[in-house]
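Our consortium's second objective concerns turning raw sequence data into structural hypotheses that experimental partners can test. To show how far this objective has progressed, the report includes one record in full. It was chosen at random from the queue rather than selected for favorable results. The single chain below, 266 residues long, was entered without modification.
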Amino acid sequence: MRKRFKVKEVESFKEHRIKRGKRIFDILFATLALLVFSPILLIISILIKLESKGPVIYASERVGTGYDIFKFYKFRSMYLGSDEERSKLSSLNQYLIDNREHAVRDEEDSCPECAAKGSFCSPILYIEGTEICENWYLEMKRRMKGEATFFKVKNDPRVTKVGWFIRRTNLDELPQFWNVLQGDMSIVGNRPLPLYEAEKLTTDQWSYRFLSPAGITGLWQVSSNRFHSEEERIHLDNKYAMVSSPKMDILIILKSIPTFFKKNDF
């Protein structure tokens, strides 16, 4: 039985399931991918095992569609015990650095979700005579405290030599085709988040992303700038959840093919 992420600030989610046509496509695509990449899967497994101690596959709990929690699989790219070291690297978080650098600018800007929607996305507050939506006000408070939703470290010292290669070529993602076969993920969707990131996206507006299937690739991954600010990334996730279609999925897959082996600095 699947576990459900505990959310206090979000209205209860109904059961969300991948549509039948999309599910059939996912199964066929994932099966073919695993067959085609089977020699590469074997080689990577051997290299990981030879370089460092630990399991070949890294499994972690992720939050997917409708806040369901599932086991998420990747090739292990870090040394054992790396999860416990994350807090020590918090000052190097690229999203946190970006938040600090743009704190003054963002404080003056309006909410990007309100701008996209053409109206306020949440209840209106009056701060020093200025109208501001509640979601954006809470977001600004969080940033001024020096917090970030997502976590990404450039030149992460926890990554192994083999890990650097499979990350930069995105080969560490290949085991996720098994997640697709299990029904926890789709080929195209929004990236499933670790629990510590998902718990920060529980306001009504930010949580729209969880209405779409969790995916291996998605709108954010194929955008021109892979490293977006937090608002831009959340906006892209929300956009996919609200306007996704079979045509959009095909376009995203086609755009993902040339970027799959593209150098990834993170």
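The partners drew two points from this record. The chain has two domains: 3-86+155-260, 90-144. The beta strands are 3-4, 57-63, 68-75, 124-127, 130-133, 186-188, 193-194, 215-217. Both points have been shared with the crystallography group to help prioritize constructs.
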